[in-house]
Amino acid sequence: MHEDPGKQANPRVAVIIPAKDEAERIGMTVRAVKALPFVDLELIVVVDDGSSDDTQDIARQAGAVTVRHTVNRGKASSMETGAKVVAMRAVKGETPPLLLFLDADLGESAAEAAPLIEPVIKGEADFTIAVLPRPVGAGGHGFVLGLSRWAIRRTTGWNPQAPLSGQRCLTTAAFQAALPLATGWGVETDMTISLLSAGFAVKEVPVDFKHRVSRHDLASQMHRLHQFIDVVKAVFRLRARRVHIKKHKFLKVALKQKPGEVYRVPLDKDSEI
């Protein structure tokens, strides 16, 4: 069981940005997050995941701490690497910083991330998820989104608007509880189910982020296929680990939920996860 989230004392925010071949946008993204409230400028970390361009150099020039994977290891590995770098650089004895995960292609719109930070600092939730405006011309038919939403609802009772959103702010305790992260594009679905099943509280927050739009071309279709496969793998991984909440535990809370409100299932020590 996880206790109710509490207001953060002397809050600090570390920003972790996984990036691969993002030389065009990474500099703007790093500069934008410097303006966010409570961000520790010494803890803006860009994890270059095997880029073939100048992503690392540009991120460093923009003021980020950078670390590089020599080969592409995927988003989950980049998130874990970033969190380890933050832990190594954090001041011993101080309250661990909040972890804000952002995509590298947000550019100047990364400066809009403040609404993600506020509920966690205030103690309303243990982690927040950004709900982005749907971009004009976006491709896809919602199969991956629907699968992720179904899996989360079935196992925890929560009906999210943006289950695949990678723009998230978490307490360090919440991130540690989600480890090890699922590989590939299933990381967000796996993380959400794992944390809700452990009693952590979540809140979705509308944020005016703008990023690269997925189109209808072959490359985009293949990307969505890989996303679908990875979410399926994450679901089976969770089932194998028996990570879920018994339906009678979440039914009352699930029936009362409203979009944009904090969702948390109060668990007791006898709850099965």
Summarize the structure.
This protein has a seven-stranded mixed β-sheet, with helices on both faces. The chain has 273 residues and is of the alpha/beta class. The mean pLDDT is 90.
Instruction: Note the run of SSEs as H and E.
Output: EHEHEHEHEHEHHEHH
CATH superfamily: Spore Coat Polysaccharide Biosynthesis Protein SpsA, Chain A
Number of structurally distinct domains: 1
**The CATH top-level class label:** Alpha Beta
Tell me, what's the shape?
globular
What does this structure look like?
Helix 6 packs across helix 7 and helix 7 runs parallel beside helix 8. The longest helix is centred in the last third of the chain and has 23 residues, at 218-240. This protein has a single domain (13-256), classed as Spore Coat Polysaccharide Biosynthesis Protein SpsA, Chain A (Alpha-Beta Complex), CATH 3.90.550. The chain has 9 helices and 7 strands; from the N terminus they run E-H-E-H-E-H-E-H-E-H-E-H-H-E-H-H. The protein is of the alpha/beta class.
Write the layout of secondary structure elements.
Elements: E1 13-19, H1 26-33, E2 39-49, H2 55-61, E3 65-69, H3 75-89, E4 98-101, H4 114-121, E5 127-131, H5 143-156, E6 168-170, H6 172-178, H7 187-197, E7 202-206, H8 218-240, H9 247-256
Parallel strand pairs: 1-2, 1-4, 2-3, 5-7
Antiparallel strand pairs: 4-6, 5-6
Helix pairs in contact: 5-7, 5-8, 6-7, 7-8
Key words describing this protein structure:
7-stranded mixed sheet; alpha/beta; 273 residues; 7 strands; Spore Coat Polysaccharide Biosynthesis Protein SpsA, Chain A
